[in-house]
Amino acid sequence: MKSVVFNDDSSEMSFWNPPPLSALIPWLEWHDTHPRHLEEYMALDHSTPTGKIFELYLQFFFTEHPAYELLDSNIQLSEEGKTIGELDLIIRDHVSEETLHIEAACKFYLSSNYSKSWNSWIGPNSSDSLDKKIDKLSQQLNNIHSDTAAKHLRSSSIQINRSVAFMKGYFFHHLKHVHQPRNPKNSSPNYCTGVWIYHSEIPSFDPHQQVWHILSRDRWFAPMLTENHGSSLKDLKQFIEDSLQKQNRPVLLARMLDGHSEDLRMFIVADSWPY
User: Fold this and answer.
1) Total domains, the chain
2) Which of 83, 112, 156, 258 maximizes the CB count within 10 A of its CB?
3) What's the domain range around 241?
4) Residues 6 or more apart in contact with residue 83 via CB below 8 angstroms
């Protein structure tokens, strides 16, 4: 994904800024032509949550990129047998010579009522919202100051220089607002975006039978590229209905330019959304 969700000065939290893409291209190209190691590292199944997939990508990056070293990850913090929190990532940045505590998140939010307010940006399953996630990230960053975290870090001879958040994701605007969107407060100007529609709006949205691909969770993180032929929304009608009505699961699709590269992504949600 091309951008963090928020500007660095948008809140009390400090955000980690990765190297510019131009600096990563040789490393990315090498892994693109030698994908076996990454594929073995990920070893995903269809039930893996998007948050876990994102964490695995980050762990792979910090393990394999020569500028970084992954010191620890997914550190469970417990007191008297009760889990009080977790530290996502502890890394060593060999360029800045800093040791960083990173709390990471990759989220997908839909504008529910054409507002900039964080509480109006809701996850596709309605179980999460932007304001709740920001509050949770802040709490997770503060876990580093707990006695349990301090004890763990001392035992591992790790001294933290900074605690930072790293948040990626997409903001989806309803189709009728896409040309005059109201962006979330303090959002980065170049955030990744898409559209969303209600199930009942499909016929009016796709009169020309455009080509679409269903995006499984492991495909949510980057634009779709494929040699496979896609399908029209009409052809996907049964899959969409089953997903929405039987599994209560919104559907994420990519519209394919010339049938092979993504030029738009879209969530289809039930007419009762948000639940």
Assistant:
1) 2
2) 112
3) 184-269
4) 76, 77
